[in-house]
Amino acid sequence: MRRITFDLDVLRTFATGMDLGNFARAADRLGRSTSAVSAQLKKLEEQAGTPIFRKSGRGLALTEAGETMLAYARRLLDLNDEAVAAVQRVELEGWVRLGLQEDFGENLLPEVLGRFARAHPKVRIEARVVRNAELLERVTTGKLDLALAWSAGTLTAHCEHIADVPMRWIGPVNGLPAWAAGSGEPMPLASLEAPCLLRNAATKVLDEAGISWRLSFVSPSLGGLWAATAAGLGITVRTPIGLPAKVRMLAPGEAGLPELPDLGLVLHRAEAEPDAATSRLAELVLQSVHEAVRDISIPSDQEKALRRFG
């Protein structure tokens, strides 16, 4: 059997296009023409020796081999990037200030900081887990170098849109939601303290659907919100990222609740051209976030990427 060595440059184009949800954006990111990207994807199929894409309506979708290829491409690229960082950036020094929204504090922060600290032990990191409004204020005033935050359209001077993540109604893992349409009672809404993007989205869709509601529980922290929701004190709104085991996403239409919109996820930078340590940490944050977004099974980005390619 002929030994095949996949081209990492081609794999990066493939993975970048899937992550960005658009191969045209991947071409811009990687400094290539769209025709060059198409040629690279054709080369990848030739190297694989099996179709990676299949027709799906007016566009394309990944075949089973394509899904497998994408998973391996990401692993190979992560290993390659770690090797480059290890041999070229071992002497990175300095101080990086990172801010995160609460949803990412427990499941993303330890993994990112661990990988970064192992590769760059001389860099000191200050991490702050706070609410969206404070993250944006701190990055715009230079008190943070990087900030990962939800967005309803508010952007900063140097930011990168990562994904649109679905919002979902959340209830207790055991038992029925605290309310159902037709009960004659206002819907009990558990929420974080204002200002809260998800609370605003929830009340807007409830008002538009003509469903009365009341604030049944207000918490200053995400931990308190999870506890109240698990106890059945109310129904809340979050994304599928970082959900604890004691709560669950309600099925579409469950309890007669209206559909919620998507929420933007954005990485903000204080500077247009950050230093090497900040840039490297930003790379690791983006990798981890893309993995988190993939894990919640959002098909839209991949579908849009493939349709635009097709």
UniProtKB/TrEMBL annotation:
Family assignment from sequence similarity: Belongs to the LysR transcriptional regulatory family.
Keywords assigned: DNA-binding, Transcription, Transcription regulation
Organism: Rhizobium mesosinicum
InterPro entries: LTTR, LysR_HTH_N, LysR_subst-bd, WH-like_DNA-bd_sf, WH_DNA-bd_sf
One matching Pfam family: HTH_1
HTH lysR-type domain segment(s): 6-63
Name of protein: LysR family transcriptional regulator
Protein origin, superkingdom: Bacteria
